[in-house]
Amino acid sequence: MRKLFLLLMGIVVLAQVALAQRTISGTVTDENGNPLPNVSVVVRGTTTGTITNEEGKYSLTLPGNAKALVFSSINKSPVERQIGTASSIDALLKDEDKSLQEVVVTGYGTQKKKDLTGNIASVKGAAIANTPVQSFEQALAGRATGVQITVPSGVLNAPPVFRIRGTNSISLSSQPLIIVDGVPVASGDFSATSAAGNALASINPNDIETIDIAKDAAATAIYGSRAANGVVFITTKRGKSGKARVSYNGSVSWTSVYGVPEVLNAQQYTDFKNMAAANNPNVNSTNPAGAGYTKFATATDANGNLIDTRWADIVYRQGLSQDHNLNVSGGNDNTTYYFSVGYSDQEGIQRKNDFTRKNILFNVDSRINKVLTIGGKISYSNEMNLQSLGSGSLSGEAFATNGAGRTVFNTSPNVAPYKNDGTYNIENGTSFNSNTIGRMNNSVTVGFYNPVPQLDLNRSNSESNHIQSFTYLQLKPLSWITLKSLYAIDYLFVDNEIFQTPVHGDGATLNGNASSTLGKNKRWTWSNTAQFDYIFNSAHTVSALVGNEQDRRTGIGFGLNRQNLSDPAFNIIQAGFVTPNTAGLGYGENYLLSSFGRINYDYKKKYYFSGNIRNDQYSAFADKASTFWGASAGWEIAKESFWENSGLGNVINQFKLRGSYGKVGNTSGIGDYGIYSTYGSGLYGGLPTLLFNFAGNPNLQWETSSKIDVGVNIGLFNDRLRIEATRYYNDIKDLILNVPQSPSAGVPNNIPSNVGSMYNKGWEFSIAGTPIQTKDFSWNSTLNITTNKNEVTALAPGLTEILTATSLETVSRSAVGFPLGSLYLVRNGGVDPATGRRIVLNKAGQPVLYQYVVPAGQFQWTNPDGTQYKENGVAVGITQAKDGVMYGNTTPKIYGGFDNSFRYKSFDLNVLLTYQFGYFVYYGSNAGLHDMRFWNNHVDVLTAWSKPGDVSTVPKPVYGDNVSNGSGLPMSYNAFKVIL
Amino acid sequence: MKKQIKYIICLSLGVGMLSSSCNKELLSPVPQTSVSDATAFDTPARVANQVNSMYQAFKSGNFYGGRAQIAGDIIGEEFLNETTNLVTGADVWNLNPTGTSTNFVKNMWAQAYYAINICNLFIDGMAAKGSSVVGTTLANNYIGEARLIRATIYLKLLQHYARPYADGNGSKPGLPLRLTGIKESGASALARSTVAEVYTQILNDLNFAETNLPLNYASAILNTTRAHRNTAIALKSRVYLAMQNYPAAVTEATKIVPQATAPFSATTGVAHALQANIINVFRTPYTTTESILSMPMTSTAGDNPGTQNQLGFYFAKSTGNGEFSLNPVGIIGNAGWLVTDARRGFNAVVSGKPYLNLKYNGGTPFTDYAPVIRYAEVMLTLAEALARTNAGVNVKALALLNAVRQRSDALTILAPATQTDLINAILLERRIELLGEGMRNFDLMRLLQTIPAKGTAPAKSSADAGYIWPISADEMSLNPLMTDN
To answer: How many CB atoms within 10 Å of residue A427?
Structure first.
């Protein structure tokens, strides 16, 4: 009892002392009047301070010299109050001004853009909404530094080639990891037909709030083994509190084909081919009764008019597209929602190539109480990707006989799609031997397939049903602790449907062919994170994250193929056919189990540090686990007092140096079972077999990228002009190459092994400014430039090159010391004015002449003086393997965009110029356009060499010649340098 | 505060549960559509299915399912190329394929060695485990099949990628002799053995097969599509013919053609004999006793030769693509081959040109069995070997020759006057009897005969470059010990 009394006495004494020093108290609230706990209250210029309690109240004993209090809290703009004589000071903290304090997604969280030390580029959703695309990334070209988008074809919904800072893998995918609302999603083409089916088309571009693109090791390392190609964070729109807002936008657009090669008309074709035939002494162009009589002749239609078919007009069209989006968003303080429906119907440039998307998105967030928030997303999208005749433009289709793009120039203009009786113009009906377009008055066939019956009767469709949904539960037991658990599904079901008519074309030899397959691609992810945010002494801002994640993917495919139609009127697979086969069988599964952590620290917004680490265990490797990491640091010089006080601070409000380094990995596109050597099932005369079909590599590991990034961010005139410059270097090791064994070893496959290395390096610059800013009119302008240099530094031991074939043609070669996928070609030396023969250069650069038809006593390959070409005394020809050179790089050295947006009152105008240059394109169709078989030709053949002394780029036309044009011998004649 | 503590406890529990509920077993998926090499010999059924897999690799469209036979025929003078398509052998026909010619030179090399590796892996796996699973007798049957297939592949490869045995008695560079299974990196380098060394290995394999193979199987289809003792004997007669070891050829062939006079038939094992009508040998069910070994086909995708590999696609015009027509001045121009000969029934004029239109006339999806060796060939081999080892006109040799001729042409009785005439008549009969069965290059090259010119294709003497194929360019670039032809 006495002790208690003494203690009470002591407290009273202390209290009296305190009173002498003066105490101040008050309440801190937000804009809505709600009390704010955990607000830091500090006497300016001292370390004296406290934090507010649950009710937002604080009480602080002031030192004698106290002048002002500083109130600060996470995500709030700090407020300063003069003390004067007051004994009570209340404060109102507003949310930070988002326009100045933009937030970027960093993976399992967000960070203020100003505080970033890693390299993340951001694109506003508004910039890509209402663009005539099927998926958002098609509209990203030129929008951000380091981001390269190449649309490879005019086929609707074909995934663009999406590269961040160059191509980072040889055998695996170089596609960045796509994270939508915190969940990794499927990307790539999931269609198994001639229609393209990009999985990312399920995200309606109009529903996107922001796109953040993480590029360096620091920004991506939180995704560890999947981060090497960069990480793209998509944030879809979520509701904002307030009355329900309803918004509709719609658009109508047209697309047209451009750059269709100008080919010969019917009369020009007929005359030119007859001349070429006459130039070939081995062709019988004179004796109609003799074998192989080759004579071209025009024909007339039913009205007696000359048949002059422009096949481009038949295959291509002007496509009409419409797009409608309706969304409702709103909520109260505790619950917000965003609901959106979209309908998009697009016509491609090729007849019968259509894309339709119907999608629905519902996002909801509900704060149950101060601690607990739950929410989620329901997204469903149905996409119809329709095609009839293959375009010939998708990967692997280049030399398909029926490629629609190819029929435009390999089919004669002097025949028509229909005979004069109105039936399809096909050689002699539908029998096996006459599966080509009818020759009409020509004595030989003058095309492969007639594209029209196939366009009319074939289908090659793909339908995607895509569900992307999640639910989360978030707890904030203390203001500085956030615990979150998120479970998500990404289910993509793809129905592929192919019908090939027995009438003509691909289906004719099989008397009708139909396939229906289903691909079920299911994925679930479950992540659990704990986030800690705390400011110590108003100076040390610490943000830490720990978490774990499971990512499970399964893929199942099955289907039916039926051939030999029992009735020509049938055209669906459920009808009668003679031969059944299986189709589209597939099975795969993988599992990624990860734990990760991050720490961000800054001292007074001057010195920054961040570190990320992730441990991944992946089912596709025998040695399951590996750790990846990234670290970065930054120095905001503009916050230093010497800067602020120097007058520089008035002009340059930000001058931040930053650098990062780390090691991340790549598994994208790796097989699920590459570590196993397996025996597969087959048939021998109807009996089961068990056949050794895959040699695996139990030592297979991740590809790893070590990335260095150094840069500066400069803000001038209160950020009205912003400049960023970055130097990057990405050293890639353990590249998985499928290492070929000598064929006599008898191994069924090239064995995947971690053997290659290469690097990407370059600069990124961007200048963004607001040259004009008035009440009614503003002009924002951004110029971004990215440079890239790529070089392969190692392939497998004993493997000097990797040749990549495009169907029948091989012009892409990767070799040590050269950029990935360089063009490997024989150099064109022009046309010899004396003889009209093609000149090519041998390995040593000496001219060698080629003639297709070799008269007695002459030679196919000759020196300029007419003597036979020999090497080491042996007569040889020029070949790509022997005489090819690394002719040029195919990846751009410089790319970027120049983006200008203008606003006048409520009207917006956006003008975006994108560019890529400093690279070569191999235009294989150019060879076709100069093929001297029955193929139609580019009009420039009319200037072909015809007599000694002529100077031309086109050699003397000799019927049948497919070497001089670079078909039989890949030649630089068909390589074009892209300058701008 | 109390409430918060409760939440923290809940969440800690939750997180704890999660960490333990991570599905560790999902990290080690077992392939569901294939069998790991670790367990491929675990059951009798798997071993039996692997036996079938050796035949499956052997009957690939790139090998004995089509292109092996096609290559043997189109090198010779009986066919004319109609489509100038490199994919379907225009360069092979023209006798100028290069090492980079994908469709025959590279693909046949690769497929043949793949099939050899399948056999080698099987032989190794049986020694390690399989024999104990199926028992010694069955194991030896199976290994006999593996070695027979391996021998047949090497024999075919020698005919295209190495000089004939007659050129220097086998002293010329032969093939890389792969005898152990490979499923890992690092085995690319291997030098060529000599032609004689490869033949020695072939005979070792076939002798083992003859000793260990069963006499026959339970059904006609298995007797035609699986190797048995007489298959080994028949193939050995072909091997000795290639080596010009005629006494040994007589010894082997006599084992299954023992009679002195017609009718001839095998008296042990499968009772091989000529069929009354040759047409029936090439018609469903393709399993007469005349077909010693044929590759079976069904309409199921993957169980037939595949696009542009089918015998019927190349030679038939009505039901195929007519890639090659019959050369009017080839064997079909021979006046002694009467129009009434049943074998002429395989030929037909379509669109003004003669084709081997009906020997493989199944059409899409091309399920005609592909012949590997037939009793008629063994009879003619025996006839030739007897003729060459006996002065004058050997009686049995002539009887065998006439047996083959009169089966299809009862009107003709051949009566050569001299030993040379007899040999030439037998060689001529082989051209007629085996037309389109892949034996023409074998018959030309074993005798170092010039390949005659045909159409626009030039003649090649045995001394000319292009008489045999170059080595696959892939092999040249990846096998540092390889030498080209």
So the answer is: 17
How close A858 gets to chain B, by Cα (Å)?
A: 16
Nearest residue to A726 via CA among A219, A124, A225 = A219
Residues in B touching A798 (Cβ below 8 Å): 188, 478, 480
Rounded to whole angstroms, how far apart are CA atoms A707 and A382?
39
Say how many CB pairs under 8 Å bridge A and B: 229
Contacts of B15 in chain A (CB under 8 A): 528, 530
| Cα dist from A686 to A465, A864, B59, B300, B477, whole Å | 37, 60, 13, 8, 38
Flag whether residue A293 sits within 8 Å of chain B, measured between CB atoms: no
Which chain A residues are Cβ-neighbours of B8 within 8 angstroms? 477
Residue A828 lies in a domain: yes
* Residue ranges of A 678-697 with Cβ closer than 8 A to chain B: 678-695, 697
Q: Is residue A62 part of a domain?
A: yes
The number of residues in chain A equals 980
Mean pLDDT of A925-930: 90
CB–CB contact A477 B221 (8 Å)? no
pLDDT of A967 above 90: no
Buried b / exposed e over B130-148, threshold 16 CB at 10 Å, is bbebbeeebbbbbbbbbbb
Which of A64-78, A422-436, A953-967, B316-330 reaches the highest mean pLDDT?
Answer: B316-330
Residue A823 has pLDDT above 50, yes or no: yes
Question: For chain B, which domains are there?
Answer: 44-447 (1.25.40.390)
> Per-residue pLDDT tens for A403-449?
888 888 889 999 999 999 999 999 874 444 568 899 899 988 888 89
The alpha-carbon gap from B247 to the nearest alpha carbon of chain A, in Å, equals: 33
| Contact indicator for A822, A816 with CB cutoff of 8 Å | no
* pLDDT range class, residue A242, cuts 50, 70, 90: confident
CA distance, residue A398 to nearest chain B CA (Å): 17
- Same domain for A114 and A72? no
Residue A184 shares a structural domain with residue A42: no
Distance of residue A538 Cα from the nearest chain B Cα, in angstroms = 25
Among A245, A270, A303, residue at a domain's last position? A245
Pick the residue of B25, B30, B34, B286 with the most A CBs within 10 A to test the interface with A by mutation: B34
Query: Residue A941: which domain range?
Result: 822-890+906-910+917-978
CA distance, residue B364 to nearest chain A CA (Å): 7
Structure tokens at A511: 């008397």
pLDDT in tens, A209-226: 999 999 988 889 999 999
Does one domain contain both A71 and A143? Answer: no
User: In the predicted model, what is the mean pLDDT of chain B?
Assistant: 94
Residues A28 and A148 both lie in one domain: no
pLDDT at residue A8 greater than cutoff 50: no
CB of A528 within 8 Å of any CB in chain B? Answer: yes
**Domains of chain A: total:** 3
Residue A382 vs residue A334, higher pLDDT: A382
Among the partner-chain residues B3, B7, B303, the one whose CB lies closest to the CB of A686 is B303
Domain boundary among A212, A245, A278: A245
The answer to whether position A559 is within a domain reads no
Give the residue-averaged pLDDT of A107-136.
Answer: 85
Query: A789 touching B, CB under 8 A?
Result: no
Q: Does A647 touch chain B (CB under 8 A)?
A: no
Residues of A in contact with B121 (CB under 8 A): 692
Residues A186, A119 share a domain = yes
Inter-chain contact B36–A676, Cβ cutoff 8 Å?
yes
pLDDT digits (tens, 9 = 90+) for B237-279: 999 999 999 999 999 999 999 999 999 999 999 999 999 999 9
- Burial of B462: CB neighbours in 10 Å, binned 0-12, 13-18, 19+: middle
Taking the CA of residue A672 and the nearest CA in chain B, the distance in Å comes to: 9
Query: In this predicted structure, what is the pLDDT of residue A111?
Result: 86
Task: Report yes or no on A471 lying in a domain.
Answer: no
A373 forms beta bridges with: A367, A474
The confidence score (pLDDT) of residue B377 equals 98
Determine the Cα–Cα distance for residues A211 and A218; give it in Å rounded to an integer: 18
Residue A948 shares a structural domain with residue A866 = yes
- Determine how many CB atoms are found less than 10 A away from the CB of residue A800: 11
Say if residue A196 is in the same domain as residue A124.
yes
Q: What percent of chain A has pLDDT over 70?
A: 95
